[in-house]
Amino acid sequence: MPLSPNLRGSLFMAAAMASFTANDTITKAVAAELNIGEILLVRGLVAMVLVAALAWYRDALRSFAALLIWPVGLRVMGEIGGTLTYLSAIAQIPLANASAIFQALPLVITLGAALVFGEPVGWRRWLAIAAGFIGVMVIVRPGAEGFSQASLLALASVGFCAVRDLATRRIPKQLPTVFITLLTTVTVTTAGAVVLVPLGGWRPPSSHALGLLVFAAVLILMGYQCIIVSLRTGDISAVAPFRYSALLWAMLLGYLAFGHKPDLQMLAGAAIIVASGLYAFYRERKRDKLRPAATGPGLPPDGL
Description:
304 residues, 0% strand
């Protein structure tokens, strides 16, 4: 039995979170040698070459007229704003605090999908998403520093990223995913160049750091592809809760790379997140069975 567009989109979202978390693990390791601006710039340049080659191979470079389409421009602005505000936030407050605030994104996206697109969101899925958010708060345990201006930057990042993801849904499906990935890569690389000087300027990376950043570029490319396919395949309100899977990947990779062992509170929060995700998955399967006919195949994963 083939998967519905929403279930397929959820799987792509989980894969995107795995790729992004692996990239974050590499970033954490390399950050001891290079600043964030250098990391974004070097990784982005490598990723640009890879994705440009893929776009050329798929004959997607003729799509530059898409820059005149308003959802594409809105997505690019959301990407820039989300990247810069989130980087500014984590530079001033603990990463756990910024991450806790950022996990409100699925709630904001679900609200936006319901209000802007009129997507049906029942009370059971609202409760599942809220339970997942509670699980996130249990895991990250935000500190008691209070609500600072940097916290407002993290909240602004949530807003920018919600605009980015909602705009992705409005991009015509005829526009190749790989081209959108190319635009995203260029955007993030540009952001790295912008923040490079304020963060300390350029230092040549070692061969070890350069090798890790090349690998990170491949991971970030995979993540961009998967998340764009996810958002263009399933309903935003259905796939958004699977962003929480990033925390599960973070626990696994954090243990393997840095020896960070999760305590009981973290395990309890993870259990809540998994339960809410599985319940959302179950509700979507049940809704899919009740539909009289398929609503369409969704967007085929053309970029993968």
